[in-house]
Write the structure tokens for this entry.
Amino acid sequence: MLVLALVLGMGWLGKGALVYFLDMGGFLVALAWSFSTFCLLKIRRKYPYLDGGFKNKHLFFPTFGGVIALGVAGLTLIPGTPVSLVWPYEYIILAIWCGFGLVSYFTQKGEQSVSEEFMGADSQLLNSKNVSSNPKEVL
């Protein structure tokens, strides 16, 4: 709902405001892409026995894509590059998004995580300190 309100509000402000929002969206997509690939790498290394939706033999290409996406996101923050954000408007939008993220992080701290909500008792197996790398020992 927040994104819908922001898109409609910026659309009513005119083409310039919508362009700012789309530029920020590109930055945030690059961050999301890199974070998801790094999470894939971390999960596959921490829980090698988990049966995922797909299994890459080597994680080089997803990790390389995550590094490239993080580099593109970093370039948008450096003024003067061809893909940099527009000063000061898009940096203000970025600060507002960061503020929303920090507020939601600190207000949700200590509540049940999404994995616990969806996985139920199975999440306790993953979170326990006695998790073995052998799946037969876990089951």
In short: The helical segments are 2-13, 15-46, 60-77, 89-108, 114-119, 122-127, 135-138. The chain has a mean pLDDT of 76. Residues 15-46 form the longest helix (32 residues). The CA atoms of residues 71 and 119 lie 34 Å apart.
